UniProtKB/TrEMBL annotation:
GO cellular component assignments: cytoplasm
Residue ranges of domain Radical SAM core in the record: 123-366
Role this protein plays: Specifically methylates position 2 of adenine 2503 in 23S rRNA and position 2 of adenine 37 in tRNAs.
Descriptive protein name: Probable dual-specificity RNA methyltransferase RlmN
Gene that encodes it: rlmN
Similarity field: Belongs to the radical SAM superfamily. RlmN family.
Catalytic residues as annotated in Swiss-Prot or TrEMBL: E117, C371
Amino acid sequence: MSAAQQAGLKTPLTLQMAAPPRRGKPPRHFADLSPEERVAAVTELGEKPFRAKQLATHYFSHLTADPQDMTDLPAGSRDVLTDALFPPLLTKVRTMEADGGTTVKTLWHLYDQVKVESVLMRYTSRTTLCVSSQAGCGMACPFCATGQLGLTRNLSTAEIVEQIRQAAKSLADGEIPGGPTRLNNLVFMGMGEPLANYKAVIGTVRQAVAPAPDGLGMSARNITVSTVGLVPAMNKLAKEGIPVTLALSLHAPDDELRSDLVPINTRWSVDEVLDAARGYFDATGRRVSIEYALIKDMNDHAWRADLLGEKLTARGQGWVHVNPIPLNPTPGSIWTASEQHVEDEFVARLRGHGIPTTIRDTRGSDIDGACGQLAAEESA
């Protein structure tokens, strides 16, 4: 009997790796299009090709899709262009604040009333947005709120970009305490498995890093894409030529436990995903982050820290950084965060192997900070 089964939790047997349930496609949006496709779209509407650049400037630089803001366009063209190319994709349903208003979690309804969440966090020297790439998740990790929801559908590129634009506008407009500022960092650690929606996620990344006016002009080094270990997609990402940070959600160094905590491990083992992670570093020069949710009496044993340290150092030095994360329990969960002295010992063991290790900040825990909790609450 496995450790998870001994703890009284049934191991999920089915992963939703197949295509998500069929739904209508989101309306075509400006952010779904390449620069060349934007030119074609505006000319099809009877406008001059240079209107595409004007629209891109408004959307990516001024962060607006409101025709009233586009005063450099003829009045007769504004509504035509915005109606056709900027359909509303996200509707804000609910927000929750923590940390004096500097952490804001937003529940969105998409065009088909599907629910997703994003979290905007302002720190002293940076701002970070955590975005969702899927509605729900098919990876079935039993300690994860989103995993408990199951997979509804993939998000389109524009649905992800819109989360980013609206957060960037909120910061630029000074809606977050501390005065107007820019969005610095983007993490694909919200609802969903980003690499299971590869096309839309990489399309979002390309628009995020594209220089103005064709994109948001962010640094690829300030973008993190997480995965539970979809090895073929990890290898594909390594060949994209975009040096984003890869974050591997490992959560256990041994196959027996990891197969319970992260069921996709039955397809790609711990050693296979660590080899792919090392390959990502070799291809990009970007240090990989290992995410490890510390769960009391489940995966927080000192010997597991030693095993993890041994597996990482066996693949070389300087290629990896570990982020232990105190578990944010979901409603009804039998699992909880590790005790402080256990967490300290786990970190000390990893550092003893020469592995750079930093406890992850858990901002927003008082507002159901784990992605999926707000959506699950509304669905209840």
